[in-house]
Amino acid sequence: MFDLANLQSSTTMHRTGTGQWFSETLATFGLLFVIFGGLRARPEAVPALVGLCITGAYWFTSSTSLANPAVTSARGFSNTFAGIYPGHIPVFFAMQLIAVGIGHMVPSKLFAAPSLPAESRQARQTGYRGSGLALHTGRKNATMGGQDPKKTVCQGVPPNACTSSSCQLD
User: Fold this and answer.
1) Cβ-based neighbour number of residue 49 at 10 Å
2) Cα–Cα dist 51/88, whole Å
3) What are the strands, taking DSSP E only, across the chain?
4) Is residue 141's pLDDT more than 50?
5) Is the Cα torsion angle 37, 39, 43, 47 positive or negative in sign?
């Protein structure tokens, strides 16, 4: 590694063909799938998930998971086993763009926020649940759906049965 020249051009010719290109599409799509899924489920875990995904994809794809145009370009300037012949780089870019297109359609639909029924949307807007119970906000001066801020906000009891122990005056 330390004996190599700083600026090289790769002569690695074996990173080409439909198998390599398909695996690059798969690796890029997999990375996007992991990112979107992680953002939906546990956003704080996304950096670790990306690292695990790239590590795994390096081993299970024949293209060694470039999944990133910057990495793809850089590998064109590395005359090692991981290098890519510069003439093959545009096809890898094209495969990554195809994966981004697929990755935009599929994960965005799979990991979209669930749509609420009309009753739930109305309850969120008015501040009341479908059972007719008031929603406790836990904050002072919070208004509920445009109501008078001087009204009480009850915790888990019908609005007309509010007692001083379970209510908070806004």
Assistant:
1) 17
2) 26
3) 152-154, 167-169
4) no
5) positive
